[in-house]
C-alpha cells in the first residue's frame, strides 16, 4: 500500500485545519457575519420586523452567517492552490459587501431587500440613460453615506483583519459567552437557533438567481405550449361581457363602501344603493404579495396545493377561451418583471394583451411608477370598439396599479381630496400617508367607474377584488410585508357589479350573489365563483368552492401556513 505523502498528512492535520479555517479565512467569515448583521439591522430600522422580534432576527442572522462563513471557509480549505484561495476569498468578500450595500440601499430607498424581482430590474437596467436617470433621482447624501460606510467596512477588513483575529483569539472565552447569549436570544425570541442560509446576502442572491432561472424556464415552457387542455363538462355561458378586475394593495377598512368614515368610494356606494353592486364582507387573500397571489386568482390552484404543480391547474383564461369567449388582458403593472410572473403566462393565453406600464424599464419602478391607471382606458376603449363586436362573448381582465406604493404617485392632483388635516385617527407623523392612501382608493373608485360606464347599457357583469390588503398601522406596521404578516394585509374588498340588463336576464344568479355576501371566503378559490357566474363547468371546477353556490362549504382559511383566525388575535 502506497503511504500518504507527508505534505498531505500535514495539510489535513487538525492544527493546519484550525489555522486555515479560523485564521487564514478569518476575513471571509468576518465579512459574511458583518454584512448579514448590517442588513438585518437595516431591516429592523425600516420597520420590516416588529420591534420585539427584531432582536431575535438579528441574533438569528448572526448565528446563521457564522455557520455559513465557516462552511465557505471549509470550501476554501479544500482549494489546494494558494492563488485560487486568494481569488476565492477576494470574490466572496467583495461580492458580499456589494450585495449588502445594494440591500441596505434598497431597504432605505424602497423598503425591499434582495429578491428575484430586484435582480431582474437590475438586469433590465441596461443603458446609460437609464443608469444616469436612476442616479440623478436617488443619489443623495443618504446614498453617499451608505456607500462610504461600506467602503470603510471593506477597507477595515482588508487592513485590520489580522489585528482583529488576534483580538478575538486573545478573548476566546468572552467570544464564546457572547455567542451563547446570542444563541439563547435567538431561540428565546424566534423559537429556533439560526435560520435559513438565505439570511446571508450572498446566499440570498444565489437563491434568487437560481429562482429566476428556474421560473424563466418554467414560464417559457408554459408560454411555448399553446395547447388548451381545459375539459368542459357543461357550457351554458351567454353573458356577452364578463369583466374581472384585480386591484392592488386595497384594504376594505379604508373604503367607505365598507363603513370607513372617509368618503373614499362614492361611486361604489352609489352603485350599492341602486342594487347593482354587492360587497362581500368577509373575504381575504391567500398571500400578502402580488406575485404569490396571482397564480391563485388566475387558476384552479388553491393555497393547500403544491405550487410546484402549477402547470396542472387550468388558467381561467383558457376556460373562457374554450367556451368561445374572446379574451382581453390589460395590465398597468410592470413589464420589466413579467418574465417572472404567472400573470405573463395567463396574458399570453389571451387573444389580445396590453401592458400599459411597458415604458417603465428601470429601478425607478420600486419607488415611483408614474403611469396612473387612467392610461389603461384608451386601449380598453379601442378593444371595446374595434375587437369586441367581432364576437358574441368577451372576457376583459384588468390588473390595476391601484394603491401600490408610493400612494401619492397613484393619482393626479385633482383626486387629492383628503388632506393631512382631515385625518383624525392617526398620530401626526402618519396622517399625510393615510390621506394619500385614501386618495389612491378614491382614484381607483373613479377608474372602476370608467371601466363600468361602457357596460351600463349592455348585458354585463364585473367582479372586482384586490390582490391583497394593506396595513396602515392598525397593528403597529405599515405595508404588507410577509415577514410581519397580519390580518389587515389580507383583508380585501370583493364586489360584484351587474348591469340592469344582466339583472333582468339572470335573476337567480343575482339572488345567489346577494345571499352570499356575508360568507367567509378566500380568493384562492375565486375561479370557481367566476365559473358559476359564467355558467361554465369543467373537470377542475368544484361547486363547494364557489361562494355563490348552494353547495358551498366553509373551510379553514390558511394564509402562508397560518390560520386566519390566529392572525385576527
Q: How would you characterize the overall build of this protein?
A:
- This protein is an alpha/beta fold and 569 residues long.
- It folds into 2 domains: 6-212, no CATH class; 231-568, Alkaline Phosphatase, subunit A, CATH 3.40.720.
- The chain is 50% helix and 11% strand.
- The protein is built from 20 helices and 15 strands.
- It has helices at residues 6-11, 14-23, 26-45, 51-78, 82-110, 116-124, 128-138, 141-170, 172-190, 201-224, 266-273, 290-297, 316-322, 342-349, 377-387, 428-452, 500-505, 507-515, 526-534, 564-568; strands at 232-235, 241-247, 277-280, 283-284, 326-334, 352-357, 394-399, 460-466, 471-472, 478-479, 494-498, 521-522, 536-538, 558-559, 562-563.
- A hairpin with a 5-residue loop joins strand 9 and strand 10.
- The protein is elongated, with a radius of gyration of 27 Å.
* CATH architecture descriptor of the largest domain: 3-Layer(aba) Sandwich
Oligomer: single chain
Strand count, sense and closure of the main sheet? 7 strands, mixed
- Cα-to-Cα separation, first versus last residue: 70 Å
Query: Briefly, what CATH class of the largest domain?
Result: Alpha Beta
Mean pLDDT: 83
Question: Strand share of the residues?
Answer: 5-15%
* Count of strand segments: 15
Count of runs of 4 or more consecutive helical residues: 20
Q: Can you list the strand order of the major beta sheet?
A: 3-11-8-2-7-5-6
The level of helicity is 40-55%
What is the assigned CATH homologous superfamily of the largest domain?
Answer: Alkaline Phosphatase, subunit A
> Which consecutive residue ranges, at least 5 long each, have pLDDT under 50?
48-52, 126-130, 187-197, 359-369
- Would you give the CATH topology of the largest domain? Alkaline Phosphatase, subunit A
Shape: elongated
Classify the secondary structure makeup into a structural class.
alpha/beta
